[in-house]
Specification:
With 541 residues, the chain is an alpha/beta fold. The chain folds into three domains: 164 residues, 3-Layer(aba) Sandwich (Rossmann fold); 74 residues, no CATH class; 178 residues, P-loop containing nucleotide triphosphate hydrolases (Rossmann fold), CATH 3.40.50. The protein has 16 helices and 20 strands. Strands 6-7-8-3-9-10 form a six-stranded mixed β-sheet, with helices on both faces. α6 links the parallel β7 and β8. α13 crosses α14.
């Protein structure tokens, strides 16, 4: 036991609602670097929440053991934590009481909260002396956040927020850091920084004493696993499905993948059949037919090229920025029906800003020459006129939906017909039928009445993708749609999106940092290149 950091024997995990995992035995020893993995809803999140103190480890019998060197000294960096941070900033926003936009907390002020600085509700109070030299701290350099310390959290990209959270966690003095799906949504440079960070921290952990900082890595799928990982703990169906060395797990994965490949063709055919049935439920209710006729469904791209007035998006010389920082400069771009676009660029290059100009979430749309669906923005159209033609999956939409987490899964899907966060209108028979079929497609059959907030982050993302696609919109905007998805859900979603792209009714704008998620139908690439002239490139493939 001298070398044991955490020892769990015959314990269960529970929260206020009841037992999450019936029985668990696990030990983490000094010198081990653990990966915790498993499918969405399989129990991994419950285990991590117990380690962080949000759930409880409870003895099952007299011979049970719960022993940890970390007590309550844990910090978690995750997609959920980043979502909560954005929600906090929105709750604290005072723009409506000011004659300017409330910048909110900067990265510097947020990090200083764990260094003796004032908390979020006292953000006008002076910062501690260390604030002026944060740039010199090795933790700040390790996370690569020196250049964004004075930027408001609400103006950071997803990747920048995650790195800021990581830096704050390192400086918090906590003994155990839980990094949950840390590479999701990060560009190549950020992933490289994080991989180097992880290797250095594990080396420091193995060379130091038991009083040093330890790290547990959690992933939705076995992808980009650091070499320094030594052991793997996998949860499936609320039970431990593997516990052993990294080498043993990789051998097991090879066997599983061989069996999956044999069944893949039949599974995909069944999936496409279910998708056709789900789309048919909407067609039967006449919801898609109107959208198809307006969009000129099935128009080949070559014909669309000869009809520029049919452009879904047209931007001419667009300039967007704040705090003296130019995000988009002299940007011109056109999207025609049937042109499926893959949008790429480093974190902070303006990808999310570009999408928010289309969705109406960035007010600088009104001072630029931007046409959507044949009409110039700012000429009397309402936001609902725009959103009726859009399906959206984004990090910020996910944050908004988490704030109304009590909505049933059926109502979340149906809200896609009404472009609302939550459902505030009477459901029709067609909408209920369509929602049931889409939930079945995503593996949620029989769970229509469950609340959105009770799902894992990955399960929530899968439901939101169904919500975005349910009305067969003219334009489907996908900002890192596979965030938090395990391998099974990820493959299902990619198959779904590929089929939607080929349907002739919907055009895709797809942002992802993972090259394995680029769809075959996405023949057009928009690459944002900050600091270059021009700051973007259009590539055909």
């Amino acid at each position: 036991m001298e070398r044991s950091l955490i020892s769990l024997k015959n314990v269960r995990i529970q929260d206020l609602k009841g037992t999450k995992i019936d029985c668990l035995d696990w030990q983490m020893n000094f010198g081990e670097a653990w990966l915790v993995i498993g499918p969405n809803g399989g129990g991994k999140a419950d285990f991590l929440q117990a380690l962080s103190g949000k759930n409880q480890f409870v003895d099952n019998a007299n011979n049970s053991t719960v022993c940890t060197c970390f007590e309550n000294s844990t910090e978690t960096v995750s997609l959920e934590r980043a979502a909560l941070l954005i929600q906090e900033e929105r709750d604290l926003d005072e723009s409506e009481y000011m004659d300017r936009i409330d910048e909110g907390r900067s990265g510097r002020r947020f990090i200083c909260e764990v260094l003796g600085g004032p908390d979020a509700r006292h953000r006008s109070s002076p910062l501690p002396p260390i604030a002026s030299r944060l740039e010199t701290l090795p933790e700040v350099k390790l996370c690569g956040v020196e250049k964004i310390l004075d930027r408001g959290l609400k103006f950071m990209s997803t990747g920048e927020i995650r790195r800021t959270l990581l830096c704050r966690a390192l400086l918090s003095g906590k003994k155990l850091l839980i990094l949950s799906d840390p590479f999701a949504g990060l560009d190549a440079q950020s992933r490289s920084i994080l991989l180097e960070f992880f290797q250095k921290m594990v080396k420091r952990q193995n060379e130091g004493s038991l009083n040093g900082t330890s790290i547990i890595l959690a992933m939705e799928r076995y992808h980009e696993i650091p070499d320094s990982i030594t052991n793997v703990l996998e949860f499936t169906d609320k039970k431990v499905s593997f516990c052993g060395t990294k080498q043993e797990y990789e051998s097991l994965l090879a066997e599983r993948n061989a069996l999956k490949e044999q069944a893949r063709s039949a599974e995909k055919q069944e999936f496409l059949s279910q998708l056709s049935e789900a789309q048919g439920a909407v067609v039967a209710g006449k919801a898609v037919e109107e959208a198809v006729s307006e969009a000129g469904a099935g128009v080949p791209e070559s014909d669309a090229q000869n009809s520029p007035e049919n452009a879904l998006v047209c931007m001419n010389g667009v300039n967007v920025g704040w705090d003296g920082r130019q995000v988009l400069k002299d940007f011109s771009w056109k999207v025609l029906p049937g042109q499926h676009w893959f949008i790429r660029g480093p974190n902070g290059s303006g990808k999310t800003t570009l999408l928010e100009l289309i969705t109406g979430d960035n007010k600088q749309v009104y001072c630029n020459d931007i046409h959507l669906f044949g009409r110039k923005r700012g000429t009397g159209e309402s936001i609902w006129d725009i959103k009726k033609n859009l399906g959206i999956v984004s990090y910020r939409l996910h944050v908004e939906y988490r704030m109304v987490g009590g909505t049933s899964l059926e109502d979340v899907i149906i809200s896609g017909f009404h472009d609302s966060i939550g459902l505030y209108e009477q459901k029709t028979g067609m909408e209920i039928s369509a929602a049931k079929k889409w939930l079945k497609l995503a593996g949620f059959e029989g769970r229509e009445t469950e609340s959105f907030g009770s799902l894992s982050y990955g399960e929530q993302r899968a439901v939101l993708i169904m919500r975005a696609a349910v009305k067969s919109p003219k334009l489907l905007i996908l900002d890192e749609p596979c965030h938090g998805l395990d391998e099974q859900y990820r493959q299902k979603i990619l198959d779904l999106l590929e089929t939607v792209a080929l349907s002739g009714t919907t055009t895709l704008l797809h942002v992802t940092h993972d090259p394995t998620e680029v769809l075959e139908a996405e023949k057009h690439i928009l690459e944002l290149c900050p600091g270059e002239e021009p700051m973007y490139r259009v590539i055909e493939r």
